[in-house]
Write a structure and sequence with these properties.
- By secondary structure, this protein is an alpha+beta fold.
- It folds into 5 domains: about 5-130, Four Helix Bundle (Hemerythrin (Met), subunit A) (Up-down Bundle), CATH 1.20.120.160; about 170-270 and about 275-290 and about 310-340, no CATH class; about 365-415; about 425-600, 2-Layer Sandwich (Heat Shock Protein 90), CATH 3.30.565; about 605-755, OB fold (Dihydrolipoamide Acetyltransferase, E2P), CATH 2.40.50.180.
- It is about 40% helix and about 20% strand.
- Helix 1 (about 5-30) runs antiparallel to helix 2 (about 35-55), helix 13 (about 365-390) packs antiparallel against helix 14 (about 395-420) and helix 16 (about 430-440) runs parallel beside helix 18 (about 465-480).
- The chain starts with a helix and ends with a helix.
Length: about 750
């Protein structure tokens, strides 16, 4: 990949971050949080995208972002209110901006007619803020054709006539804080479509400002670089704002300019006399010094002014030397000395302390690192096990070294896994746009509420969450929420609520998608399933079993096919996708109150803590997160009924006793309940069961290997792993084993009745 392609890729990665920041800010404004920090963050996001797009000549993107930015600027200044109508236009504009970024990245095209219409709406908001008539629609918006990008900004033709501008209304109120700011843009700043005059205008808004421009570095016309930057601005600012607010003005450009911001203490009126011997001598030496060479030392002993002269004569930074210079440059002025005093580091002395340091790393490298750490864990276990098998005493120095190696390996593994851990916010950020689009199509009013968006999970899980969440959100809006009129008739507000929450629970991530709609119409669901031949007409189904019919392939209650539903695909895809991740999905629904879909997924697809058990002549791993306790049943605690079904009494509770060897097909005979170990487990739906195994070998962290990818799907098995002796062990799918062991219908209830008798 060439350097320009890498920069372009980085730009689009940053665009994704800026778009996420933009949408989050607009949603916060929609919820009434239209404070200056939020509005400025939204403005900065659009401004940054425009600046980067300008460097790559993405004209359509630059133009749209410019109009969008202009509208947001009216909101920044307080002339445009953040009403519901305004925010809705801006949210749609954010969607259009995202489409333009995608089109620029992938080489596609965006909806030009829609974008032109949005541009007209944005310009209308600007006109409204200024008390003017909205401009006439552009040709693209009115159905006409255009030859390329539309660059009409509502300013008429491009003929330019100089006019006098009164900026007195831009001036803020002065204050006791005084600053001297030296601001020298670099070519990079202009290449990113940033403008010095916009920065200066924002400085004016802080208080009383006096700006002077140093043109000493401007070369002759024959030597000038059209893309160069030669001007240095010195600003004397009097403001009531603190230094942090002053620095915020330059935060967009601080790395693309030389910047110095210094607090100025009050001094007696009057200028420094030029005939002061020390000052006069220093100025003489500065003027006499050749460009780039140190000034000669004074003949007299150095005094307190000497350090000033030394600073003023420091070499210029590299990027300043690169700019063409006139043949006979004039003597450096006070601004130039102030610039040299800033150190020329390109950051203007801006404090970087406390900022999080991050790097961008190719995901393939991280995946490779995780694979290697997994192999390290396996080999560490193998070495330890072989050493003990060879008769090495556990109290020996070598054994102690193996224990320390195990602990160190575990820490390395945890640290590497933390690298891939990401908050689910990246997935949740895609949902507001989806909700808006589905709500518009279905004609419903919907409000999305998200919780726990900073809950962290492995990146591989996050990447595969998007499709299931999309289907479930669409289902919640299309099937769950009622029409506004129906909600009013039911005594509910017109606006329905869809809530998406993420949380950690028992070493797994749980995501709940709930709505306050009408709930599942179980009668209709069962009738539809019978009509489609999915269940027999005489089937006696519980509420839970009826609800789960919606996950069957081909099931749909839609009366007609639409762009949202009706083809019988969606929820079955959700279930398969979640199962492929080693997860489970469950439903709870209350008629008239709404439904909740709960997805439970592993935090990572790489490692898990498990209990190694013997099942027949095989070794199986039971995930530790599902285990509550272990016990050895007594004969008096085991109750048999209905053939091979058994219950075990644990204190005052009876629960099913599941013979794991028989369920997995390792044995056809029923194992003795008193000859093995019962592992008490809890399924995702809260139901408890006891898994009967032959014995427990120990507990350890294992590396997960996909069985489905390397062999095929096996009922009751979630994945596989490699043990210390090199053998493959299967990782038990606790929920699947417990579910298949139950007799259809009333296993637990009939067993409880039998036990009570």
């Amino acid at each position: 990949m060439d350097a320009m392609a890498e920069i372009r890729q980085t730009f689009f990665e940053e665009c994704a971050e800026q778009l996420a920041e933009l949408e989050a800010g607009l949603l916060a404004i929609e919820n009434g949080e239209a404070d200056s920090d939020t509005v400025n963050a939204v403005f900065r996001a659009v401004h940054s995208i425009k600046g980067g797009a300008g460097a790559f000549c993405l004209d359509d993107l630059v133009h749209f972002a410019h109009v969008f930015e202009t509208t947001l600027d009216e909101m920044r200044t307080g002339r445009l209110d953040s009403s519901e109508k305004v925010v809705k236009i801006m949210l749609r504009s954010a969607d259009a901006l995202a489409d333009l970024v995608t089109a620029a990245r992938d080489g596609g095209t965006a909806d030009a007619e829609r974008n032109a219409g949005l541009i007209d709406e944005l310009k209308g908001l600007v006109a409204l803020a200024k008390g003017e008539e909205p401009p006439a629609p552009t040709a693209a918006a009115s159905g006409g054709s255009t030859d390329g990008p539309v660059y009409d900004d509502g300013m008429g033709d491009f003929d330019f006539t100089p006019v006098a501008v009164d900026i007195s209304d831009l001036m803020g109120i002065g204050g006791d804080n005084k600053f001297r700011i030296v601001f020298k843009p670099s070519p990079r700043m202009y290449a990113k479509a940033n403008e010095a005059n916009r920065v200066l205008r924002d400085v004016y808004a802080l208080g009383e400002a006096k700006v002077s421009c140093n043109t000493s570095e401007v070369p002759l016309l024959t030597a000038i670089d059209p893309e160069g930057a030669y001007l240095t601005f010195t600003i004397e600012l009097s403001t009531a704002e603190p230094e942090e607010k002053v620095r915020e003005v330059f935060e967009f450009v601080e790395f693309d300019c030389d910047l110095s911001i210094e607090a100025v203490l009050d001094e007696p009126d009057g200028d420094i006399e030029a005939d002061d011997p020390d000052i006069a001598e220093i100025l003489a030496r500065i003027r006499a010094a050749p460009d780039g060479e140190p000034a000669p030392e004074p003949a007299h002993e150095p005094d307190e002014e000497a350090p000033v002269a030394a600073k003023a004569s420091q070499p210029e930074p590299e990027h300043a030397k690169a700019a063409p210079k006139p043949a006979a440059p004039p003597a450096p002025s006070a601004p130039a000395a102030a610039k040299a005093d800033a150190g020329g580091d390109g950051k203007g002395g801006a404090s970087a302390g406390g900022a999080a340091q991050t790097i961008r790393v190719d995901l393939e490298r991280v995946d490779r690192l995780i694979d290697l750490v997994g192999e390290l864990v396996i080999h560490q276990v193998m070495l330890s096990q072989r050493a003990y098998q060879a008769g090495l005493a556990r109290a020996s120095d070598v054994a102690v070294g193996f224990d320390e190696l195990e602990q160190l390996t575990r820490e390395i593994q945890d640290s590497v896994m933390a690298i891939r851990a990401q908050p689910v916010k990246s997935v949740f950020q895609r949902l507001p746009r989806l909700v808006r689009e589905v709500a518009d199509i279905s004609g419903k009013q919907v409000r999305l509420v998200t919780e726990g968006e900073w809950t962290e999970v492995d990146k591989t899980v996050i990447e595969r969450l998007a499709d299931p969440l999309t289907h479930m959100i669409r289902n919640a809006i299309d099937h769950g929420l009622e029409k506004p009129a129906d909600r009013l008739a039911a005594g509910k507000p017109e606006e329905g609520v869809v809530r998406v929450a993420a949380m950690h629970r028992s070493g797994r991530i749980v995501i709940e998608i709930s709505d306050d709609g009408a709930g599942i119409n179980r009668k209709r669901v069962k009738e539809t399933a019978i009509k489609k031949g999915l269940v027999p007409a005489e089937a006696n189904l519980s509420d839970e079993e009826t609800d789960n019919l919606i996950f069957l392939p081909g099931f749909s209650t839609a009366d007609k096919i639409s762009s949202l539903s009706g083809r019988g695909v969606g929820m079955d895809v959700v279930k398969r996708s979640i199962q492929a991740l080693g997860g489970r999905v469950s439903i709870t629904s209350r008629p008239g109150k709404g439904s909740t879909f709960t997805m439970s997924l592993p935090l990572t697809l790489a490692v898990l803590d498990g209990m190694i058990v013997s099942v027949g002549d095989q070794t199986v791993v039971v995930p530790l997160t599902a285990i509550i306790e272990t016990l050895q049943p007594k004969a008096s605690e085991v109750k048999s009924f209905g053939g091979d079904a058994r219950l075990v009494q644990v204190r005052d509770t009876f629960m099913p006793l599941v013979d794991v060897a028989r369920e997995l097909g390792y044995s056809h005979d029923l194992a003795s309940a008193t000859g093995g170990v019962a592992i008490l487990v809890e399924a995702e739906n809260g139901a408890r069961s006891a898994l009967l195994v032959d014995g427990i070998q120990g507990q350890r962290q294992v590396v997960i290997k996909s069985l489905e990818a390397n062999y095929g799907r096996v009922p009751g098995i979630a994945a596989a792993t490699i043990l210390g002796d090199g053998r493959v062990a299967l990782i038990l799918d606790v929920d699947a084993v417990v579910a298949t062991s139950r007799v259809e219908g009333n296993f637990f209830n009939s067993g409880m009745k039998h036990a009570a008798e």
